[in-house]
Design brief:
homodimer, about 270 residues, alpha/beta, about 40% helix
C-alpha cells in the first residue's frame, strides 16, 4: 500500500498546509511509537520509493538508516526524495531481502513497512532479517489488511472491486490480508515479545480532507491501479468495475464514512 | 451486542482476577472518555440488563443516572445488578425511547449503548432524545458493526454465519452495520460537533484471556445465539452453521487473531 499522493490540487500555501495535515495524520497513525536514538543502526528493508524513509529520518534524525530495496529504480527515487527533504542520515543499497549482504548482528533494529504483503514467503524474509539484527534488537512491521476496509453506504459492488485487488495480489503470490496474521507470523518466525496494535484510518464528513486523503487518494487510488489487470484477466467486467469504484468514491461524500485498519507489530529478536 | 459473560470457569480468586481484567479491557475500550461530574443528570436510554449501567455508575459516582428500558424484565435485572454492586446513584424507569416521559431539557447528557442497532428508525429515537437533553448538553452513542469483524484464519464459512446474524437483524428491522454510519445519522438528526472514534477490540495469542473474552464469550457467543433462527428460517443449513462456528472459534487459538470495531460518537445538542 502506498501513501504517496499526487498533487492535482496544485501548490498554493493553503493547499500545502492541507496536504501536510493529511500526510501528518496518516504518518502519525503508522509511525507513532517508533523512534530510534542517536547512533542507532536501523535497517529499513524494502524502502520502495522512500515514502516511509523520509518519515523515519524525520522522526529519528540522529539514527543511522540503511534503506534497501530490490529495485534500483525505486531506490533512485527514494534517494532523490530523501535528498530533497534534506536528510543526511540514510544510506541506500540495492539488495534482496532474502539474500541480505550484511554480517550477522549488523543492525540494532529492523523496520519493514508494506513489504511482507508482496512476498511469497514472508516467514522466510522475517527469518533472514533476524540474522542481521543483534540479539535483543527489535523488529517493527507495518502492514495493511484489505479485508479490513468497509464503508458507508455499504456496497456489494464496491466490495467486489476490493476483492479483485485481494485476488490479484494472491495470484501474484502475495497476501493483502496479511495484517491480521502478523502476530502468528512473527511468533512462528522465532521473534519474542510480539506485540501487535491495530491502527484504524477512519474518515467521515467531519474531516473532508481526511476522506479525500484516505478514502480517495490512498485507498480508492490503490484499487483503481489494478483496473486493467482485473478486467483484463476476467475477474470482473468493465461496467461492474466502474460501478464499484463509483460506490467506493461515494463513501468520501459528506454523509459517507470509510474505515481501514493497519497493523503494527513490534517484536524482539 | 452484549458484553455479559457467563461464569463457566467458576469463581476462584485467580479466575476472578482474570475475569475482571477481561471486563476492564472491554469496559475501558468503550467507556474511556466518558465521565460525568457531581450532580450532573444523565439519561441512559435503553439500559437493558444494566451491563453498561454499572460501568457508568462506577466511573461517574457523583452523577445522577436515570436508566430507562422498554422491558420491565430487563429493568428488574439491571436493578438487581446495580444494587448488588452497591451503587446508589441510579434510578430506573420503564419507558419507550420514542415516547419519553420527561420534560424538555430534563437532562444534562444522554448515553445510548448498543440500542440504535435494534431500532427501525434510529434517527427518530435520536430526535426524541434531543428534546430531553438541555441545549449545550451532550449525546454519547456506542454501537458495534458486525461487518467490521474479521479474523485469522480467514474463513468463508465463518463469514457466512456472521452474515446470517446481520441478515436476521435486518429482517427484525434493525441494522447491525450501524457503527459505520453513526456520523451521518447524528448529523442528520440535528446534533452539532459530532465526533466519532472507532475502537478496535483485537485479540491474538499474546493475550489468551482477551481471545477468550472477545472472540469466544462476546462475539461467537452472540452469533451462536441466533443459531435456531438462522437454520430455522432457512438462511443456512445446520452443517454449514456448525462449520462456520467452528472456524470462528478457531480464531481464538494461539495462532489465530480476531478484530471487531466499536464506534463511539459524542455530539452536542
Amino acid at each position: 500500500m502506498s501513501l504517496a499522493m499526487d498533487y492535482v490540487h496544485g501548490y498554493s500555501a493553503r493547499e500545502g498546509i492541507r496536504l501536510r495535515d493529511q500526510a501528518n495524520a496518516l504518518a502519525e497513525l503508522l509511525h507513532s511509537g517508533t523512534r530510534y536514538g542517536a547512533g542507532v543502526r536501523v535497517l529499513e528493508a524494502g524502502c520502495g520509493t522512500g515514502a516511509q524513509t523520509v518519515l523515519l529520518a524525520d522522526r529519528s534524525p540522529e539514527a543511522l538508516f540503511t534503506s534497501i530495496d530490490v529495485s534500483e529504480r525505486s531506490l533512485a527515487e527514494a534517494g532523490r526524495r530523501v535528498e530533497l527533504a534534506g536528510y543526511e542520515n540514510v544510506r541506500f543499497l540495492q539488495a534482496d531481502i532474502h539474500r541480505l549482504p550484511f554480517e550477522p548482528s549488523s543492525f540494532d533494529h529492523v523496520f519493514v513497512c508494506f513489504v511482507l504483503e508482496h512476498l511469497g514467503d514472508p516467514a522466510a524474509a522475517l527469518r533472514a532479517l533476524m540474522t542481521v539484527v543483534k540479539p535483543g534488537g527489535s523488529l517493527t512491521v507495518i502492514e495493511g489488511d484489505h479485508g479490513s476496509a468497509y464503508f458507508h453506504p455499504a456496497s456489494e459492488r464496491a466490495s467486489r472491486v476490493i476483492q479483485c485487488l485481494i485476488d490479484l495480489q494472491q495470484l501474484a503470490g502475495g497476501d493483502s490480508l496479511i495484517g491480521r496474521r502478523l502476530y502468528p507470523l512473527l511468533v512462528h518466525a522465532g521473534y519474542r515479545d510480539v506485540q501487535v496494535t491495530p491502527r484504524v484510518a477512519y474518515a467521515d464528513g467531519s474531516r473532508p480532507d481526511l476522506a479525500d486523503a484516505i478514502t480517495l487518494k490512498t485507498f480508492t487510488a490503490m484499487v483503481e491501479g489494478v483496473a486493467d489487470q482485473a478486467v483484463g484477466q476476467g475477474l470482473i467486467d468493465a461496467a461492474s468495475w466502474s460501478a464499484g469504484i463509483r460506490d467506493l468514491k461515494r463513501a468520501a461524500d459528506d454523509d459517507g464514512t470509510f474505515c481501514y485498519t493497519f497493523f503494527k507489530a513490534v517484536a524482539v529478536r
